From TrEMBL:
Pfam families from the UniProt entry: DDE_Tnp_1_7
UniProt xrefs under PANTHER family: DDE_TNP_1_7 DOMAIN-CONTAINING PROTEIN, PIGGYBAC TRANSPOSABLE ELEMENT-DERIVED PROTEIN 3-LIKE
Organism placement in taxonomy: Eukaryota, Metazoa, Ecdysozoa, Arthropoda, Hexapoda
Residue span, PiggyBac transposable element-derived protein domain: 8-101
Domain of life of the native organism: Eukaryota
Name by which UniProt lists this protein: PiggyBac transposable element-derived protein domain-containing protein
Length: 129
């Protein structure tokens, strides 16, 4: 592991060697504690390697990012344009719809609405449109 700290200690860049080097920047998790994790080696065996706190925190919370990327890729808004601003606008619109749908599903569960009565993502997008 290697790390670089900014002059005001607000941002920390950490480099961790996994199968390839992983570089992470954080203003939330600092130097932190290191723990050990099981790592699959190319020699077909598990090794226990030290892992920084920022990597551990990312690994435990990355499920939401993967789910979000998956949901955006299902019904991606395609705009045929040369201007990058229109692509950005379409992506921001997709992100807002996905976040709204996730909130809708969460609220429907809290209210006890049956899953058959909740809208799926495609019908939710049509309803918003």
């Amino acid at each position: 592991m290697q790390e670089v700290i900014s002059n005001d200690s607000a941002v920390i860049l950490k480099k961790w060697f996994d199968n390839n080097s992983v570089i992470m920047g954080s203003n939330f998790k600092g130097i932190g504690d290191t723990d050990t994790c099981k790592h699959w080696d190319k020699k077909k065996k598990y090794l226990y390697v030290p892992r920084p706190e920022v990597v551990r925190h990312y690994s435990t919370c990355m499920g939401g990012v993967d789910k979000f990327d998956f949901l955006i890729s299902i019904y991606l808004t395609f705009i045929c344009s040369i201007k990058w601003t229109q692509y950005l606008f379409a992506h921001i619109l997709d992100m807002a719809i996905i976040n709204s749908w996730l909130d809708y599903v969460c609220e429907a569960k809290c209210l006890g609405l049956p899953t058959k009565k909740t809208l799926d993502l495609m019908h939710f997008r049509q309803h918003v449109a």
